Amino acid sequence: MTVLGRGKRRVFTADVNNHNTLFGGKLMAYIDDIASIAATKHCRRSVVTASTDSVDYLHPIRPSDAVSLEAFVTWTGHSSMEVFVKVIKEDLIGGDRRIAATAFLTFVALDADKKPVPVADVVPETEEEIKLHESAPLRAEMRRRRREESKKLAGYLALKQPWK
Questions:
Q1: Cα gap 34→103, rounded to integer Å
Q2: Are 113 and 119 within 8 A, CB to CB?
Q3: Residue 88: C-alpha distances to residues 47, 134, 146 (Å)
Q4: Mapping DSSP to helix (H, G, I), strand (E, B) and coil, where does residue 3 land?
Q5: pLDDT 10s digits, 18-59
Q6: Domain map of the chain by residue range?
Q7: Which of 37, 60, 70, 94 is 20 to 30 Å from the Cα of 31, by its Cα?
């Protein structure tokens, strides 16, 4: 396994919130984009985001920073892929680099009819990849349980329009 998605972004004033840090939603869009590239390159098929499992913001990203994202598939199920994204911020003037965020997402490979199709296994190579691969089954079980709970909760949610 190798890094299948890589990208860099500059942070501009229009990208930040009232705390002068990168909007979380903007970073989430960058993460979903790079993760979809990694998933697509792994299976060489169309993919769909099944879930954003977690996004952990570790350090604020400011307009003086550039953002680098790296993504790779850490584990596969039958047709699903867990993708890990590492977000590195770099102060463009001082050169300080830090892990600003990490994320796990799940994608499903689709055929031409938009039906799930099998994907190849992952073969971890680096120490980082091996650690993420070894811990993936536990995350997969947590995703399964969370999805079951989400389905139960959806059964209790109202569909009526609140403005009527």
A1: 11
A2: no
A3: 25, 23, 28
A4: coil
A5: 999 999 999 999 999 999 999 999 999 999 999 999 999 999
A6: 5-154
A7: 94
147/114 Cα distance (integer angstroms) = 21
The residue whose two tokens read 């992952």 is 122
pTM, two decimals, is: 0.91
Contacts of 145 (CB under 8 A, 6+ apart): none
Distance CA 92, CA 67 (A): 10
Contact 30, 9 (CB under 8 A): yes
Residues 14, 115: Cα–Cα separation, whole Å? 39
Instruction: Dump strand ranges (E) for the chain.
Output: 5-10, 46-57, 65-76, 80-91, 97-110
Given a cut of 70, whether residue 143 has pLDDT beyond it is yes
